[in-house]
Write a structure and sequence with these properties.
Layout lengths: L2 H9 L21 E2 L5 E5 L6 E7 L5 E6 L5 E6 L5 E4 L6 E7 L5 E6 L5 E6 L5 E3 L5 E6 L5 E5 L4 E5 L5 E4 L12 E2 L5 E6 L5 E6 L5 E4 L6 E7 L5 E6 L5 E6 L5 E4 L4 E9 L5 E7 L4 E6 L5 E4 L6 E7 L5 E7 L2 E8 L1
Parallel strand pairs: 1-26
Antiparallel strand pairs: 2-29, 3-4, 4-5, 5-6, 7-8, 8-9, 9-10, 11-12, 12-13, 13-14, 15-16, 16-17, 17-18, 19-20, 20-21, 21-22, 23-24, 24-25, 25-26, 27-28, 28-29
């Protein structure tokens, strides 16, 4: 099996929308810790939204994300801790995607113009924009120094942009079909997948000096890193030889632990915080998506937004606040889960 199809499977938990499985009502799974009773959920959506997804939350509790309007155009938004939502688009944008927010409130994302080229951007808290000056760039993450990493869809390379305006493009070894950075920590270390000549995914780590190390989950058919924390711990997913998707955590020394919530047929870690807690979602046998938090001692807490039929967590901060999206009927909304 060539990985053109499998590559889509690995990429489906994208930042583009609420990657939620449509299904019937969520239910408790044996062997997991249902966490609703100890948590507070706040739900939200920007005015005019028909689909909302939160993609990042910083230490102050400001949330970044994107929403789709009734004309099916995407816009970015920032939600302040008091609940105020500010929608935004860079000038000339016909489609705006926000992917992350740092401790200073800088938001990274990408926007498309009428010529269909994407442009990565950084939005400051005062509403001003800095556009990364290369067409085809798509941001994936921002660190607390304001450095942005992502992918050049035209060059099929990864990039690192720093606030002084410097852009470095790079490729992982044997990346015949693309290098796709997904996360950067405050030491400037970047992780993500790259794709070999058969389009199989492998993990890479690029240190601040530009040295790239390749890794794979032992016994995996493909490895897809999603997030790296300040200590260098990485969370992501991998496929086994039956093309079933599982979660993994790689510690800074290189040891890898794999996991699945009970009842999962697809496990998709999305974010790891400074304490080593991991959040993401999994899909059960009824094709319903549930959120989870995995603690550093390997305990799994499963949760669903009350009233929703499907829940997808995308990010968490140091204070254990989790954001993501959930489905009610045919519409998706943003949520904040407070511990």
């Amino acid at each position: 099996m060539r990985l053109s199809a499998f590559r889509f499977v690995l990429q489906c938990p994208s930042k583009r929308g609420a990657m939620l499985a449509m299904g019937i009502a969520s239910f408790a799974l044996p062997g997991t810790w249902q966490a609703q009773a100890e948590s507070k959920f706040t739900t939200f959506h920007p005015p005019g939204s028909i689909a909302t997804t939160a993609t990042g939350i910083n230490t102050s509790g400001t949330i970044a994300g994107s929403y789709q309007d009734s004309g099916y155009r995407y816009h970015g938004f920032a939600r302040s801790p008091d609940g105020t939502i500010t929608a935004f688009d860079p000038e000339g944008s016909v489609d705006t995607q926000a992917v992350g927010i740092n401790s200073s409130g800088l938001i990274a994302g990408s926007y498309a113009t009428g010529n269909d080229f994407s442009h990565a951007f950084v939005r400051a808290p005062d509403g001003s924009f800095t556009t990364i000056p290369y067409g085809g760039t798509e941001a994936s993450a921002i660190d607390n120094d304001g450095a942005v990493t992502g992918t050049s869809s035209l060059l099929r390379l990864g990039f690192l942009w720093t606030p002084d305006g410097h852009v470095a493009f790079f490729a992982a070894p044997e990346a015949a079909n693309g290098t796709e950075p997904k996360s950067i920590n405050d030491s400037g270390v970047i992780t993500g997948p790259y794709y070999d000549s058969d389009e199989f995914a492998h993990g890479f780590i690029r240190d601040a000096a530009g040295t790239i190390t390749v890794f794979n989950v032992p016994g995996s058919a493909a490895t897809f890193p999603a997030s790296i924390n300040a200590d260098g711990a990485i969370a992501g997913m991998y496929s086994d030889d039956t093309f079933t998707i599982h979660g993994f955590v790689r510690n800074p020394a290189g040891s890898i632990a794999t996991f699945d919530p009970a009842g999962s047929m697809y496990t998709a870690p999305q974010s790891i915080n400074a304490k080593g807690e991991v959040t993401g979602f999994f899909i059960d046998a009824r094709y319903v998506s549930h959120g989870f938090v995995r603690t550093p001692d390997s305990k799994l807490k499963v949760f669903d937004v009350p009233g929703g039929t499907s829940t997808s967590a995308t990010a968490l901060n140091r204070e254990d606040a989790v954001v993501g999206s959930y489905i009610v009927g045919l519409a998706s909304h943003g949520f904040l889960r407070s511990p």
